Amino acid sequence: MSAVETIDDLFAAEGPIARALPGFEARPGQVAMARLIERGFLEQTHTIVEAGTGVGKSLAYLVPALRSGKKIVISTGTIALQEQLVTKDLPLVKQALGIEARVELLKGRNHYLCREKFDRMSAQRLVASSASMERLWAWAERTATGDRAELSFIPAAGDWEELDADADDCVGELCPRFGDCFFFRRRDAARYADVVVVNHALFFLDLAMGGGLLPPYDYVILDEAHRCERYAMAALTATLSPSGVGRVLRRLHRTYHLPASHDLQIEEIMRRLTATLAQVSGDRYPVSANDAVEPILDELREAFYKLENWLDANWIGALRRPTENPAEVERRRDLAQRGIVAHIGTIDRIVQAASAGSDADAIAWIERDDARYEINAAPFEVGDFLRATLFARTPSVVLTSATIADGTSFEFFKESLGLEEAQELVAPSPFDYPVQARLLLAPPNLNPKLANFAARAAALIEEAVDRSRGRAFVLFTSYARLNEIYGLLRERLAFPTAMQGDRPRPLLLEWFRTTPNAVLFATGTFWEGIDVAGDQLSCVIIDRLPFPSPSDPVIAARLAAIEASGRNSFESFMIPMATMRLKQGFGRLIRSKADRGLVVLLDGRALGMRYGQTIVDALPPARRIDDFRELDDFFA
Ligand code: SF4
Q1: What is the overall mean pLDDT for the chain?
Q2: Residue 636 has pLDDT above 80, yes or no
Q3: Nearest CA to ligand 1 atom 3
Q4: d(CA 136, ligand 1 centre) in Å
Q5: Which of 385, 386, 380 is nearest to 361 (CA)?
Q6: Which end of the chain is more exposed for a tag (fewer CB within 10 A), N or C?
Q7: Parallel, antiparallel, or unpaired: how do β-strands 372-379 and 362-369 relate?
Q8: How far is the CA of 241 from the centre of ligand 1 (A)?
Q9: Which of 50-59, 131-140, 552-561 is predicted least confidently?
Q10: Atom of ligand 1 nearest to the CA of 176
Q11: What is the rounded radius of gyration, in angstroms, for the C-alpha atoms of the chain?
Q12: CATH superfamily label, 433-631
């Protein structure tokens, strides 16, 4: 690469990228995005780009990233994108630019095998405790990376945890396997890399922990940035669960001769907690809706204090494997204490959030699923946290996704992340939506809240699917509606049908990709992170405008906080959320210049209400049709 080459030269029709990538076509949106990001790096400003499907956003940020000569962290929301970056896009850009950049993919600690745990377990037991553990042992003997992504099977619950490189079991440089530890080897490699690729979970956890998981970096690129708020929130969420409590106790037992009385007391409290949580109906509800929870949490806190006191008195005498090394003994005590103290802190946060009333800046809620449950506490918003830990400290952060603008504005996105100043760009998709896509909106009198909705919606779905000859996703915002309409249609449709829950998600997707004319009924979660290229997916039907559910405790608390600040929560939260979600769903349909497809929105409010129009106007410019007969030639 010549030093004088500009971004325009690099992306030119005969330029280095075109030479490295056969079939490359210059796209104005891609070049504008690359130019802006480079300027952001040079001028040390943050950059937001909404890059419509097909813009080629990864090359648009990788070129300025590698040219910057700085240490860059790239964080994504999906494994698929991380793999694409590491195995395809980064090698291509390195070759095109002639830059020898070192690239590392770094995952969270619990993705890697802990050699020390494996050594200890296989020395203590002659045979593995289960069939899945036996397979894990066989893999542990031969793996060169220790990365669980290599596994061709899913280990039984708890088995992987017994062997993973979790920080709470790790004595670091005091460990006999530290020198060839899989995790630390990767972390060292990341320290010397020019580009480190990570996932959002690890990136935001590193921010929440004040660093230490990732090496220091100059700039950050957050791809799939529409997921950042969710991951930042998850990193700040404290969770109490029976499995988490069990894990602390099991770890203590692995290190110490812990008297059974502690387990018995904690288990008895957890049993009462389980029974108490079941007294209020619902899978997700605020802790404040169940007065009986807080006294039990107080008892649990006391039990953990007792455990901490026991540890203080017995951390040398009760060791299972006395060691000569006092530093290791202390490190083990610190690790054990950390788990106990973290649980006391979590209980405090839950109780505080539940009892703060209208002054609360956090919410505590219960999530139940059959016999499992979690009690969580999380802040309402992550803006202050990200402003302080990310945007104020990193000179240039790039945020990009196909869906981060509501309409043409980034205000909602910026506010939700605490980003005040950024250069902005909407790089439109190069696809010809008026030619490639059709959009049919149900008549205004078809209202999802009315009793006749299911029967009328089913008739429209039947007709749409007939027109597209199957090859359709039918997406619902609730399981109840999914079950109801699937029940009405499964015998009536002339195409192979399946419903979410029939089989695990990857198998369901595989079924859809490989079954001619398939129709998949699923909830809205199915349109995220799913890529069905070609005409196998030619129709997306959506039951209603995808507003977040106001009865969800987290959403309800958030809406109340917005109203308390004097703003209209419907306009400033519900509409932007629905807009971005609908754009994501739409984005599944057209993945290449050759794709064609139909979107049907069954919610009459899209036509009948002013806000419906606002949401629909933000979608890619598909040709609107009023009648299925207008599709006669389209699917010919
Ligand atoms: S250094 Fe930590 S993670 Fe690595 S093998 Fe030792 S105990 Fe396991």
Answers
A1: 91
A2: no
A3: 165
A4: 17
A5: 380
A6: C
A7: antiparallel
A8: 26
A9: 552-561
A10: 6
A11: 27
A12: P-loop containing nucleotide triphosphate hydrolases (3.40.50.300)
